[in-house]
Amino acid sequence: MRASALTDVEQKIITFSHEHFGQRAGLRIKAWLELTHHLQNQSLPLQLSEVNNFFNQLVFIDDIKLWGEDDYWATPVQFLNAGGGDCEDFSIAKYYTLRELGVDDEKLRLIYVKSLTLNQFHMVLAYYETPSSMPLILDNIDGEIKPASQRSDLVPVYSFNATNLWITKGGVTGSQSVPAGNVSNLSMWQKLRKRSQHDTHHPIINLDQ
Fold first, then answer.
1. What separation in angstroms does the CA of 85 have from each of 23, 27, 98, 120, 184?
2. What is the arithmetic mean of pLDDT over 147-176?
3. How far apart are alpha carbons 34 and 136 in whole angstroms?
4. Which CATH class for the 8-198 domain?
5. Where does residue 122 rank: exposed (0-12), middle (13-18), buried (19+ CB within 10 A)?
6. What letter would DSSP give residue 106?
7. Would the pTM of this model clear 0.70, i.e. be above it?
């Protein structure tokens, strides 16, 4: 992949991560920013695949170990600086990177599910070509992007994007999603937005876009 020229702001973000979180953190941020430049105006399948593969290189780390909290949703740069995170962090980073690449918010949903394989709650990112189409699932457990019809191991609980919140029934397909109001009702999402707004060191991803 040929690196595209980074902006002065992006270079400062890399330097900040390097100085405060170490050389590897700076290199991860640099690789991410170069990836977003490289994928601009590329095909959607390539964007989905490259973004999914990039973040799936990071390691899983429990919130309590990493942040000292039972449940903490990190910004994409916090995730990269730490070098890992839990399933919410993987999904959120993929979501905002795809949004930065111009994918419409209405085509993306973060889906909170029960993983039958792990017997625990989990989060994945779904891409919908149309509101009624079978979504593609981007996941850190199963790294291969698959239609939701091939992910019978996931039982949905609810889904959301930057605007709306749904209670999801009838499988991860979301074909029986029931509107549950505005995403402002989701407290963890609001905490994430505020955290990003107040972080002056890496204003790359606009959480309100």
1. 18, 17, 19, 16, 24
2. 81
3. 25
4. alpha beta
5. buried
6. G
7. yes
